[in-house]
C-alpha cells in the first residue's frame, strides 16, 4: 500500500488535509483571487490557515506530520475552512485522535464469526436479498438471493468473496450495476475511511494492496481520498438471470461485532421488481458445486 503513504514521515491527518485542500477552489472558499497563474490546484496552505484562523507555520506542520495534537477547536475550524460535510468532519476528528497516539496498539485480526441469530435473521428476510459484510467488505454470510444478486461471485472461493474485489475485478460487475462508477466510488470511500482510522489493519492492507496493483481505477479513486459513502438508497441492476430490476437497499451496523454490516435489498410486493427478487431467491436456493472445502469456510458461506 505504498501509494497512500504520506511523504517525508507525514500522517494520515496530513494526507487528508492535503487531499481536501487541493479540491476546494478559492471561489468556493469565498476568497478573491488576483490576476496571475496559480501553480497550486485548490487552496494554498496559507489560505487554509487564514480561513481557519491559525498560523501558517502551524498548518504547515499539521500537513507535514510535525504537529500531531490539534485541539478540537482547531479541527472544527479546519473542517469549516475546507467545507467538510458531517461525515468528513467526523473522519477528521478521528484522524486527529489517531495522530495524537504516541504508541498505537497493534491491530487485532478482525473476527469473521457470524452469530447464529444473524444467520436466522438472513433467512427471515427472504425473498429479500441480504448479506453480511466485514469492515473491509468481505462477504461473510448471505441468504440465497443475497449471494445470487452478485452475479458470478459464487464461482469464487469463499475466502475470495469481497464486495470491493468483486466490483473492480469480476468481469460481470460492470454490466451488473447500472451506475458502476457510483458503486466503485462508494466502495473506495469505505475503505479509505478505514485506512484513515486503522491504517495498519491487516484485512485492509491485503485488499487495498491487491487492488492498487490490479485496478488503475481503484488506484485513481484511492488517491482522491473520498470517505463519504451511502448507507441507503436505490440501485438498478442488469442481472443476467432475472433481468433489469430497481430495488431499495439499507445498510445496518451489527452491534457487538468488529464492524460487520447487514445489507438488505427490497421491493414492494406485487411489483415486477419484487417478482425478480423472488426468482433470484429461488435460483440462489438451488444446489451449486461451489461448496466450502473446510469447516472454517463453512462459517462464512452463504445460508441456503
Offer a concise description of the structure:
With 304 residues, the chain is an alpha+beta fold.
The main sheet comes to: 5 strands, antiparallel
DSSP summary: helix tally: 14
Secondary structure: helix percent: 40-55%
**Multimeric status of the protein:** single chain
- Whole-number mean pLDDT: 84
Low-pLDDT segments, ≥5 res = 1-9, 291-304
Structural class: alpha+beta
The best one-word shape is elongated
- Tell me the distance between the termini: 37 Å
Strand proportion, as a percent range, falls in 5-15%
Strand tally: 5
SSE arrangement, N to C = HHHHHHEEHHHHHHEEEHH
Structure, explained:
This protein is α+β, with helices and mostly antiparallel strands. 44% of the residues lie in helices and 11% in strands. The chain contains 14 helices and five strands. The chain has helices spanning 12-21, 45-52, 56-64, 72-81, 86-99, 116-124, 144-148, 163-169, 173-176, 180-197, 202-214, 216-224, 272-285, 295-298, and strands spanning 130-133, 139-142, 232-239, 243-253, 261-266. The protein has a five-stranded antiparallel β-sheet.
Amino acid at each position: 500500500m505504498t501509494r497512500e503513504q504520506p511523504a517525508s514521515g507525514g500522517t494520515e491527518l496530513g494526507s487528508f488535509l492535503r487531499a481536501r485542500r487541493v479540491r476546494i477552489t478559492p471561489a468556493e472558499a469565498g476568497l478573491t483571487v488576483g490576476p496571475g497563474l496559480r501553480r497550486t490546484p485548490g487552496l494554498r496552505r496559507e489560505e487554509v490557515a487564514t480561513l481557519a484562523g491559525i498560523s501558517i507555520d502551524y498548518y504547515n506542520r499539521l500537513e507535514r506530520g510535525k504537529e500531531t495534537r490539534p485541539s478540537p477547536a482547531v479541527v472544527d475550524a479546519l473542517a469549516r475552512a475546507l467545507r467538510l460535510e458531517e461525515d468528513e468532519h467526523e473522519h477528521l476528528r478521528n484522524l486527529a485522535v489517531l495522530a495524537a497516539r504516541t504508541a498505537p496498539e497493534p491491530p487485532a485480526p478482525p473476527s469473521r464469526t457470524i452469530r447464529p441469530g444473524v444467520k436466522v435473521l438472513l433467512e427471515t428476510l427472504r425473498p429479500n436479498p441480504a448479506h453480511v459484510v466485514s469492515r473491509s467488505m468481505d462477504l461473510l454470510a448471505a441468504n440465497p438471493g443475497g449471494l445470487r444478486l452478485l452475479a458470478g461471485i459464487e464461482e469464487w472461493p469463499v475466502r475470495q468473496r469481497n464486495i470491493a474485489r468483486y466490483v473492480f475485478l469480476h468481469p460481470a460487475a460492470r454490466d451488473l450495476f447500472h451506475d458502476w462508477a457510483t458503486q466503485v466510488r462508494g466502495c473506495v470511500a469505505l475503505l479509505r475511511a478505514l485506512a484513515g482510522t486503522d491504517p495498519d489493519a491487516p484485512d485492509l492492507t491485503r485488499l487495498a494492496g491487491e487492488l492498487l496493483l490490479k485496478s488503475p481505477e481503484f488506484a485513481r479513486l484511492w488517491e482522491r481520498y473520498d470517505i463519504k459513502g451511502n448507507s441507503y438508497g436505490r440501485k438498478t441492476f442488469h442481472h443476467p438471470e432475472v433481468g433489469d430490476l430497481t430495488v431499495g437497499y439499507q445498510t445496518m451496523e451489527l452491534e457487538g461485532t468488529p464492524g460487520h454490516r447487514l445489507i438488505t435489498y427490497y421491493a414492494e410486493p406485487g411489483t415486477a421488481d419484487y417478482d425478480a427478487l423472488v426468482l433470484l431467491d429461488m435460483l440462489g436456493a438451488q444446489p451449486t458445486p461451489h461448496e466450502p472445502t473446510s469447516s472454517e469456510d463453512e462459517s462464512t458461506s452463504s445460508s441456503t
